[in-house]
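Task 17 of the worksheet. Students: predict the tertiary structure of the chain below and write it out as structure tokens. Keep your answer in the requested format; marks are given for formatting as well as content.
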Amino acid sequence: MQTGDAFSSNQRRWLWLIALAGLFGPNSIFLYHVFFRQDVLLSALSNPVALAFMALLSYLFARWRVNAALHWGWLVVLSFLGGLLFAIPTYLLLRRPRSDG
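Model answer:
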């Protein structure tokens, strides 16, 4: 997987739109459950499939060196802040292209 190339301005624009849609779309449902339905939130956070999926994505992003600027743990933090639809594009946008020369 080649990660040294920077995104074009059009690609960056689409990634930001996806990240914002994830932050204000599905994440608003998550925030509702954080503040008003903690019982449902706790059962979702104890779901081993969801945790395994997040761990697998974090491992693969670290293995593929997708982001040279951020530690893989930030993908987990961003996932808890805004869900994967927010975390993945944001994590990709915050990366620093590698200098291979």
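Marker's comment: The chain has a mean pLDDT of 81. DSSP finds six helices and no strands in the chain.
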